[in-house]
Design brief:
The complex is a heterodimer of chains A (684) and B (467). With 684 residues, chain A is mostly beta strands. Chain A contains four helices and 43 strands. Classes of the chains: A mainly beta (684), B alpha+beta (467).
């Protein structure tokens, strides 16, 4: 009951009383069992796979190799040996043999739990067997300060102690901890900082933790303290909300997290506090990840660890356009059934072995309580050419609650979608990637207000994953379903799910509506990737299903007209279950992306699972990593940022001879024939 | 002694077409009497007939002296006289520090040859400083909208003596450029319209969410056309658009920056900037410089640097004639100066072949950073994503063994290359704090400004001075 009371406070936005964060130590086996191992490629939250690294509060050294985590016996040190990381059959990292056995380095005499590893200088240094600095030594030595607080019986005061740890065979697959020693006792930071779950930047100066700006021992908000002297005992600034970082001249220009006001997922600028727990700040202060919403309790310890803010693992910082992004993927498997707490990363370019997922900016992450490994892809916010990316997951409100009536746009334009009628986000992940919106085929839809960003002019790509729950063809009438439209079917652009299971895309350009049929149907009950692309310079409209071009028409060159209508997704409004035209879509939609660039057929890796990771024999850098965000010469880009293979042509790929005005054709014709209905009775 | 006393004219000016005094020559010593100069130059002209000796009178101590000689066949020399620019019809000896009294000037040659000399002598300017001679962030200037506010700058870049219509069109153009659409700038225009009304001709431009981050002296970019640039940088202060910067570039130049022989030495401008380092009336002098420079005829181009969403994008915008109602000129987005479209160039094909051939043919000039990159290789914008490594120009297949050096040189001659050397892509922060790279660059520019006292004419390579 006590925890339920705490939850009620949190739900109302009150500060939570001091509470130990170590209560989940024993959740580990359960968490392991609950981590789904579904195949999820990219787009913000990648797959999550099991990892042998586990525990409660933990952190990682800035060379990415030394992990210290609290388990039942106390603080355990482990080495990550990326040299032992292999790839699974899908090309995703297999980290099952990547860690050394845990070594107990500290009994929980003082309720040791969450910690920060503070390095006054870059660690480790080469050392001799005796532990002395020796550039030619065979050992690596860490001489660091471990910062923590007693979250159970004290007043949460931050403290530090000095740890010396020696590694033999460093940076090899045989690396192992040789020895360790504590070189100081507990020392309390001054002025006193009261909070829990510290995390510190590489330079040892910026400490972020869960506490309050009042420094009163309460928690549930994210605050920071700065010290010009790295890892120092004295001189820490009074805690302040991380929402004020952009106003702090000591931080601006040094830590990218402080470069801009921070925003909630709907674009609202945070002006007061950010509710959050289990923070981990990216090494150079670029961003922060934390759990952003409470996990509701159905009953006592149901689900285990429920009550506190252990839901909606999110990222906030430069890769998310300084807005909270609730990760859509396996690391947020359910908003009702499993908690999640501590995650940290060895860094995006520290090792060649991880990450494996292709993308502009991909970070590998280890979760301790959940004993999992994942790779977060930030292309949605960094690409710069998406004008809307709806992962179709829950929106975290500025107050730190899950809003099931809205779904965020993570493109950076904050074109937040509002779920209307029979549109819903299930509790557990149901999408091809994380969550998908379920639409009832009658009233369900998502509405996005008009914004200038939603009116591309020269190029347009609309793509999404759709999973019809039932065939649209329900009677003798034309039962087409409105899948997406900015305005009506003759509006700026639209997509219809025809009653034969195919599609029709329309754009308004040069004052006329230009239409193209997909030429191919999709099956019911499984996700299919559908996309249409318009290029104004050539007047080409092309359709793609599961990455293959299925039809294309060339109209005269004309820019898109745009309009000021709202964007509707999944339905035109209330509609009959079996409509005589203009019905609503029955099924699920996931990963809707609208771009102001033509992404000709190159929808990997974000939506093509098999192409989402480097080859198993990789080991080199992911191919997209160096691609940057440079545009192709024709303005079209591939997902990895490289130029198209057309060698700088200003036209789309050559038109296939078999692409008739409204027919099937193109290179995928044989495949298309398997699923295309040969008699099209009705068209929208 | 036949003396023809020259009437010295104190004050600014130069390049006068009529001499202040003249002599019939005859080999006699001519005294060219000048008024003692102060901060402002003493400028005088003298016309003599060879052969002759000219003694300059009235100067004392260390001075900065520039002398131009217009002659046809005569030899004009003095121990302290070092020609820096020799052209048909004469030469210019740019300003350098000399100690008066000066040795006489010998004029030799066929008898009767007429020689005309223009002198500018002044007290040696102080060492330039960054805070006054190179950049202005002093709130007394940067925050005074009557000196350098948005209304003033935008009025100077437009044809209608207001600038609102052109600025609105400028923002909206970001959303329609075919190579890259940046609709957030359109949304900024919409936000301003919501605030100030739909007609940008009526906008109070000083109420725009723009803050001057600095005024920058780029006299180091002097060319045959002007004496470098004066740049005003702005940041957008609307928190919905946190990473939007604009720069407006105006041509510098003052009376006397071009000699009678047509040599653009830019010294008058340079010494005005240098003297700001010790000026007690800095704000008044800054205002005077801006009064002279922020005018329509001097507007060169605008630049934009924004990370509205995801990626940084850097562009240049030049005035182009337009048929749009009320807009004789609009700003369009040409290929970037001195920038290679790396993504396109790395793709096998005619463009890449063309580029590699051009590099092969011009390797020496590229490495010396003295050649302009043809616009056919340039993108219309440069993009950079924080946290993402920049693509590297692939020079494989190049026959020269110095591919790495060439790649570095090509990368460093363009503006994007410099901007990307700052972790934040921005050299002047909204707080008016300069990046480390820019501070290095300012030090180099300061030295370059001081070098005006040393008759320096070395051609400036493209790219950063500090490299």
């Amino acid at each position: 009951m006590l925890r339920s009371v705490f939850l009620a406070h949190a739900a109302r936005g009150a500060l939570r009383p001091q509470r130990r964060s170590g209560s989940l130590v024993w959740l580990l086996p359960l968490a392991l069992a609950l981590v789904p191992l579904s195949r999820v490629a990219a787009v913000e939250g990648a797959r999550a796979v099991a990892s042998p690294f586990g525990g409660n509060g933990h952190n990682v050294s800035f060379d990415g190799r030394l992990f210290i985590a609290r388990t039942g016996p106390g603080w355990m040190a482990q080495l990550l040996r990326p040299e032992r990381i292999t790839r699974d059959e899908g090309g995703f990292p297999n980290v099952s043999d990547a860690f050394t056995e845990p070594l107990l380095i500290q009994l929980p005499d003082n309720e040791e739990n969450a910690l920060a590893i503070c390095e006054p200088e870059p660690m480790p240094f080469r050392c001799s067997a005796a532990g002395d600095r020796d550039g030619g030594g065979d050992f690596a030595c860490y001489d660091v300060w471990v910062v923590d607080s007693n979250a159970v019986v004290s007043d949460n005061r931050m403290r530090r102690r000095r740890l010396f740890l020696q590694v033999r065979s460093p940076s090899t697959r045989d690396a192992a901890i040789e020895r360790f020693e504590w070189r100081s006792g507990l020392e309390y930071l001054t002025p006193g900082l009261r909070g829990i779950e510290p995390t510190v930047t590489r330079d040892g100066r910026l400490l972020v933790y869960q506490g309050t700006r009042e420094n009163d021992g309460m928690i549930d908000t994210l605050v920071y303290s700065y010290n010009a002297s790295p890892c120092s005992l004295d001189g820490w600034s009074a805690p302040q909300d991380i929402t004020r970082m952009h106003e702090d001249a000591r931080l601006r220009g040094t830590y990218r997290l402080a470069d801009s006001p921070l925003r909630a997922a709907d674009g609202t600028v945070y002006t007061d506090r950010i509710r959050g727990a289990y923070p981990w700040i990216f090494p150079d202060g670029e961003a922060i990840n934390f759990t952003a919403a409470p996990m509701p309790c159905r009953g006592i310890e149901d689900p285990p660890g429920c009550g506190p803010r252990r839901n909606a693992l999110s990222v906030l910082g430069y890769p998310t356009n300084w807005a909270l992004a609730n990760i859509d993927g396996d690391v947020n498997p359910s908003r009702e059934d499993t908690v999640r707490l501590f995650f940290s990363s060895p860094g995006p370019r520290t090792f060649t072995e991880i990450p494996a997922t292709r993308g502009l900016d991909v970070w590998p992450f280890f979760g301790s309580n959940t004993s999992n490994y994942t790779e977060l892809v930030f292309d949605d916010g960094l690409d710069g050419r998406y004008v809307g990316v709806w992962h179709m997951n829950e929106l975290v409100t500025p107050a730190g609650e899950l809003d099931l009536s809205r779904t965020p746009d993570t493109s950076g334009f904050f074109n937040t979608g509002r779920l209307v009628g029979g549109a819903s986000l299930p509790a557990a992940n149901n999408g091809r990637v994380g969550k998908a919106v379920e639409l009832d085929g009658r009233t369900g839809r998502i509405e996005v207000p008009h914004a200038a960003s939603l009116n591309p002019v020269n190029q347009l790509t609309v793509e999404m994953l759709v999973r019809p729950s039932s065939p649209p063809d329900c009677d003798a009438n034309n039962n087409y379903r409105f899948l997406l439209g900015k305005g009506e079917l003759d509006g700026a652009y639209s997509l219809v799910f025809e009653d034969d299971g195919s599609f029709q895309a329309r754009v308004r350009a040069g004052g006329e509506v230009r239409s193209l049929f997909s030429g191919r149907a999709i099956p019911v009950g499984t996700f299919s990737h559908v996309a249409f692309v318009y290029d104004a310079a050539s007047g080409t409209l092309a359709f793609f299903i599961d990455g293959a071009e299925t039809n294309r028409m060339v109209f005269g060159p004309a820019t898109l007209d745009g309009n000021r209508e709202a964007l509707r997704i999944g339905g035109p409004g209330d509609a009959a279950e079996c409509p005589d035209g203009h019905g609503a879509f029955h099924g699920a939609i996931d990963e809707l992306e609208i771009s102001n660039v033509a992404r000709y057929g190159d929808f990997a890796p974000s939506l093509d699972e098999d192409a989402g990771v480097d080859p198993v024999d990789g080991g080199g850098r992911p191919s997209g990593r160096d691609g940057g965000a440079q545009p192709g010469r024709d303005g079209g880009v591939r997902r990895d940022g490289s130029a198209g293979s057309d060698g700088g042509s200003t036209t789309p790929p050559a038109e296939s001879d078999s692409c008739a005005a409204a027919g099937t054709g193109g290179v995928a014709a044989p495949l298309i024939a398997l699923v295309t209905l040969f008699v099209r009775r009705r068209r929208s | 002694v036949i003396a023809a006393l020259a009437i010295a004219l104190a004050g600014c000016g130069g390049g006068t077409s009529a001499p202040d005094a003249s002599s019939d020559g005859g080999g006699a010593m001519i005294v060219w009497a000048l008024e003692a100069p102060g901060e402002d130059a003493t400028v005088s002209s003298l016309e003599v007939v060879a052969p002759a000796m000219v003694s300059i009178d009235g100067l004392e101590g260390d001075l900065l002296v520039r002398l131009e000689v217009i002659e046809a066949g005569a030899d004009v020399s003095a121990p302290w006289l070092v020609p820096t620019d020799v052209v048909d019809g004469g030469f210019l000896a740019r300003s350098r520090v000399v100690t008066a009294p000066l040795a006489p000037i010998a004029i030799e040659g066929p008898p009767g040859t007429r020689v005309r000399m223009n002198i500018a002598a002044r007290a040696v300017p102080p060492d330039a400083d960054i805070a006054h001679s190179l950049t202005w962030t002093d709130p007394a200037v940067a925050d005074d909208r009557s000196i350098v506010g948005p209304a003033r700058v935008l009025r100077a870049f437009s044809d209608d003596d207001h600038g609102g219509v052109l600025f609105d069109r400028f923002l909206r153009r970001f959303g329609t450029t075919p190579h890259s659409e940046r609709p957030a700038l359109v949304e900024l225009a919409d936000a301003i319209a919501d605030e100030q009304g739909a007609d940008p001709a009526t906008w109070d431009l000083d109420a725009l969410p723009l803050r001057v981050t600095a005024v920058h002296n780029r006299i180091d970019l002097r060319s045959d056309a002007h004496c470098g640039e004066l740049r005003v940088s702005f940041t957008v202060t609307d928190s919905a658009f946190p990473f939007v910067h604009f720069l407006f570039l105006f041509a510098q130049g003052r009376d006397g920056d071009v000699s009678e022989l047509g040599i653009r030495h830019c010294e008058e401008s340079a010494f005005v900037w240098a003297r700001l380092a010790t000026a007690t009336d800095f704000v008044d002098r800054a205002r005077a410089i801006l009064d002279e420079t922020l005018v329509r005829d001097r507007f060169l181009l605008a630049e934009s640097l924004e990370r509205t969403v995801g990626t940084w994008e850097w562009r240049q915008w030049t005035p182009e004639e337009s048929a749009e109602p009320g807009l004789p000129h609009v700003l369009e987005n040409p290929p970037l100066f001195q920038t290679i479209d790396v993504a396109a160039a790395n793709v096998p094909g005619p463009l890449r072949d063309d580029l590699l051939a051009w590099i092969e043919a011009n390797a020496g000039a590229i490495e010396a950073r003295t050649i302009a990159i043809p616009s056919r290789f340039a993108p219309r914008s440069a993009r950079a994503t924080e946290g993402v490594l920049r693509p590297v120009l692939d020079l494989s297949g190049l026959a020269t063994p110095r591919a790495d050096a060439l790649r570095t040189a090509l990368d460093r001659i363009g503006c994007p290359g410099c901007h990307e050397r700052s972790p934040t892509f921005v050299q002047t922060s909204p707080d008016r704090v300069f990046s480390d790279f820019y501070m290095d660059e300012l030090e180099a520019r300061r030295a370059a400004l001081d070098a005006f006292r040393e008759a320096t004419t070395a051609p400036r390579p493209f790219g950063a001075l500090s490299d």
